[in-house]
């Protein structure tokens, strides 16, 4: 009696999983057929090969950043559900369309618990004018988070005391514990800072104290948690990673004044193949750190740069710049060079009598230290605008 052979049946079982592995950025499908064959009418064999087709439907790259669809903000790639329950907002797809670019914002009274979050003023982008105190906390998302980077996309608060540089009515303060804090006020859009949290287990606090009435305030601060491998060098409050750019002291603005009680280092990452760096003023009025420097009274018998140099050492507000040589351009267009000064203060980046100059340094690492002391005396704000310098790294010469 001939055996009846029946068609082969194929079944697929799809299991939806969430991939929690950090490096998973795309969906994966693994499938095999599962067969059942009935061999005869009176004797059939049930012979399945059990198989699962796995559809990784919600890949979640927990540390992968994405760009929002409007191009303005950085988000974290999550699935739609996770974005919603974490109070984020979806801005376009990511992970081949299986996730969304989830952007997080926080304001007064909130707690930041994401890799990237935007701290915004109340009613942003509307102006805030009423006096108040605004505080939020930042919790580390992982033990290996070593720093917070704060990018001041928009930052406008009340100005410091115009005569002393002290932040009196409005102050931004970031603090960790009792011995680690940094504070600013005024106009700081475009600035950034790194804040060390390597050994911290308690949340970091950010406080905006605003006591003056009828003062326009607006801020949008990108708070990024930085793992140890990507951290800025130790001791750098600011870290510029481009081969050329602009560096400014805090509150450098037309109606601004450099702040008192500031002591920090601005660092520039040394690019490959570059061996020196050149600094020059942004314009002829972009270096104003105190009144013009004159020789000390007890050095009246001295002359030239030595007397000026001794006077610079007495400046309570100054910048310290490791350097090798200084190039001057006279009004007639002639160029001369000589040894540069380590300390700079007064109303000109250049030496007395020079209007244009460039300072070159091959001392590594590339950095400038800002040292603005306490408000020991009242001075004209026009003489204390602060510093704006252009920098450009120079290639090695064999």
Automatic annotation (TrEMBL):
It holds the Pfam family CUB. Transmembrane segments: none annotated. InterPro entries: CUB_dom (IPR000859), CUB_metazoa (IPR058698), Sperma_CUB_dom_sf (IPR035914). The keyword Disulfide bond applies. The keyword Disulfide bond applies. Keywords: Disulfide bond. It comes from Megalurothrips usitatus. Coiled coil: none annotated. Gene3D superfamilies: Spermadhesin, CUB domain. Residues 108-226 form the CUB domain. This is CUB domain-containing protein.
